[in-house]
Amino acid sequence: MSVTISRDGAVPAYHQIADDLRAGIAAGRYPVGDRLPVERELARQYGVTAMTVRHGLDVLRAEGVIVSHEKRGHFVVRVPGGGTGPAQSAEYTGVMAELRTVRDELRQLRQRLDLLERRTGPADHVGL
Fold first, then answer.
1. Packing angle between helix 39-46 and helix 13-26, nearest 10 degrees?
2. 5: which residues sit within 8 A by CB, 6+ positions away?
3. Which of 41, 49, 85, 108 has its CA 20 to 30 A from that of 55?
4. What distance in Å separates the CA atoms of residue 88 and residue 31, rounded to the nearest whole number?
5. pLDDT above 90 for 46
6. 75: closest CA among 2, 86, 52, 88?
7. How far, in Å, are 57, 69, 96, 110, 126 from residue 121 at the CA level?
8. Which of 16-20, 71-75, 103-107 comes out lowest in average pLDDT?
9. HSE-CB of 89 using CA atoms within 13 angstroms
10. pLDDT band at 85 (very low <50, low <70, confident <90, very high)
11. Confidence (pTM)
């Protein structure tokens, strides 16, 4: 795949790259959960510097379309313009469910701690 980036248009090159990658994700070329090609390969494909590609990826990251992991790459987490709401990966959905469970457990522990402190007094006299 080689896409021509217009250098004389009003749209910056990094926005053109973000637009092309976004269209590729929406078309299924890069499904949710897939890793995008490395920056060096994208730079070669688009005929730009890696820094320009990085700026394009920043746009998609800010939109919540991709996430980046140092030394692992850039991964698609949702399809842009998914209609009724953002499509979420199974991993994301699972992590969010775990976070809700942890939050609920922390609330319960806080209630138990409050009850214990009311019964015994504050913990500052125990050496904590």
1. 110
2. 13, 16, 17, 46, 47, 48
3. 85
4. 11
5. yes
6. 88
7. 54, 46, 36, 15, 10
8. 103-107
9. 17
10. very low
11. 0.62
